[in-house]
Amino acid sequence: MTTNPSLSTITLMTLLMCLSPTLIKSEKGIDVLLPISLNLTVLTDPFSISAASHDFGNVTDENPGAVLCPSSPAEVARLLRFANGDFSYDSESTTSSPGFKVAARGQGHSLRGQASAPGGVVVNMTCLAKTAKPAAVVVSADGTYADVAAGAMWVEVLEAALARGVSPVTFTDYLYLSVGGTLSNAGIGGQVFRHGPQISNVHELDVITEEGIDVLLPISLNLTVLTDPFSISAASRDFGNITDVNPGAVLCPSSPAEVARLLRFANGDFSYDSESTTSSPGFKVAARGQGHSLRGQASAPGGVVVNMTYLAKTAKPAAVVVSADGTYADVAAGAMWVEVLEAALARGVSPVTFTDYLYLSVGGTLSNAGIGGQVFRHGPQISNVHELDVITEALRERQKEITEVLQNKEDQLRETASARVTLVSQGKRIKTPLLAGTLAETIAASSRWAPDASSVDVEELKREAASIKRAALIRDLDLRLLYAKQKLKKAEKALAKVQKDLDPSDLPTDSEIITEEERLLFRRIGLSMDPFLLVGRREVFDGTIENMHLHWKHRELVKIIVRGKSLPQVKHIAISLEAESGGVLVSVDNTLKGYAIILYRGKNYQMPFRLRPSNLLTRKKAFARSIELQRREALKYHVADLEERIELLKTGQEEDREPHKKSDGEEDNLYLRVDESDYSSDEDESFLSLEEET
């Protein structure tokens, strides 16, 4: 067997390269050796260095000192601990190294060198995807989620999902990007408007902090966590610029409960259920408003920074709510003083004391007592705080969970103790376990000693339940009727406001008279005419009369087609057209195109100087009038329907109060008397919309 000498030389060089210490440079330009004891797969060949030196943007070209190709997250954690000077070879010795830069790189689609580490170490995340067990992408059995390794591409996620007959709810437009790289920018794709960005569909994140601690943020925490470089960089600096420490993640809470869950998890006191409790290595959690601290008070090195401004954005009903009497304001965490001042001025009041620079968070200035211009008259801001909402709801939930766990343990101990007790009665040992005070004992006693309910009692209970349900439904419908009548009054006021410029004309007393023969002739000619005018939802307005006069300029008759109206409504429109135009009504006929109105201009017709009468509505106002009419008619129908349903329910309630004698054909289930359709979803939506308007 022959051996290629050149191939053996290359293999030997690669082996020596991986086993020898690697020389890199720290951020201060100091040479640092990566010892062999770190057990890292480090590449320093020119091809790997060149591939990791530039990105998609082609703006920067900075060579790293080495490229790490990790086979597990533990290698990344060891590298980060060594970079921070916190790596021990054994239990007695600990080495420290000058800090050097470490950057994670996926497919290299950054624009300005965000994944570069000049002189440091670039972590090739694709190696984790190649060595992931059992695969880089594992879709769950039910197809609801996928476990994706770091460095895996979206095309691999899509292929694995399609193999199971499912698809990701949202993914990037260009599939040959790493999943972690698009998540770092929130993940804006084609499905983002329907299912939210990619970061909103992440269930769990396996995060390695700056200290090299592997922390798993579980799905049960239900937190909105950002790990993109922009959020990390924004949360690493404060107003003083004295410290610049990167946190591990940034929390964007939508409620104080998320902050409470994160604090419990950071303290190792978070339970997935009532039986299991997880503990996590403690990490720092800091609250950050507008970042106007001076010495990094709002920073959390390697931990989680809570962006309090998101609580102000998601506060309901608003970030600042001034009381009705204007004596105090309810301010959400993260709100700025300028928002407090705007809300107060809108109510005609002003805060007794506030900060000189208004673009500061209220909580941030309160933490420093709040020294402002009015402090000598009204005291500092902290002296004018009526109430502080410290996170207590989540703590109460935790206390309740602990109480339930203790009760279950107490029941188990009681059963165990009672099983060991034996009673001696008449010389015989009774080994029956004592169940006093347990749930099983209560159920057994109830089933044994509780009186059996007769059929009459069951019927009476059903009748009472149906009566209570009917009474609750009547109260609900009464409330809906009250709000519907209020909306009807508002609709009538709006209609009167639109119609204030409408002044319809009366029928002329000296109108021209045509004979019956002329009427039949004009009717036949008018119905055979091709040109016509169409009257729609606006009905009669100034433009309709103008078009009639323009028709009469060339012919003696005008044909008007009306669609979507009943015969009485068409007759009313015909009389209005006759009164406003000054013509003679010939006939109203039902045709295939709709109702046809034939009008004769008269023998002594003269075109008026102003074709559009000023006493009618304009086109725009006529359209608004039609909308208000439609709204009023719909509300009238809704009010009548509610009154009828209330009357029927009250009639059924009176029947239930009378002595009940069930006939042979009557239903046994009295719940069938209350129709579930009375709880209409459309009414719920209209009821909620009315509450928002009021």
Written account of the structure:
Residues 1-26 form the signal peptide. This protein has 694 residues and is an alpha/beta fold. Among the domains are: 12-124, Uridine Diphospho-n-acetylenolpyruvylglucosamine Reductase, domain 2 (2-Layer Sandwich), CATH 3.30.43.10; 312-391, Uridine Diphospho-n-acetylenolpyruvylglucosamine Reductase, domain 3; 394-449, no CATH class; 462-501 and 617-660 and 668-694, no CATH class; 516-616, Translation Initiation Factor IF3, CATH 3.30.110. The chain is 39% helix and 12% strand. It has 21 helices and 22 strands. The strands form eight sheets. It has a four-stranded mixed β-sheet with strand order 3-4-6-5. Strands 11-12-14-13 form a four-stranded mixed β-sheet. α16 (455-498) runs antiparallel to α20 (619-657).
The global form is extended
Mean pLDDT: 73
The second-level CATH architecture of the domain at 12-124 is: 2-Layer Sandwich
Arrangement of strands in the largest sheet: 3-4-6-5
Number of strands: 22
Percent of residues in beta strands?
5-15%
CATH homology superfamily of the domain at 12-124: Uridine Diphospho-n-acetylenolpyruvylglucosamine Reductase, domain 2
Question: Total helix count?
Answer: 21
CATH topology group of the domain at 12-124: Uridine Diphospho-n-acetylenolpyruvylglucosamine Reductase, domain 2
The helix/strand class is alpha/beta
CATH class of the domain at 12-124: Alpha Beta
For the record, give the distance between the C-alpha atoms at the N and C termini, rounded to a whole number.
92 Å
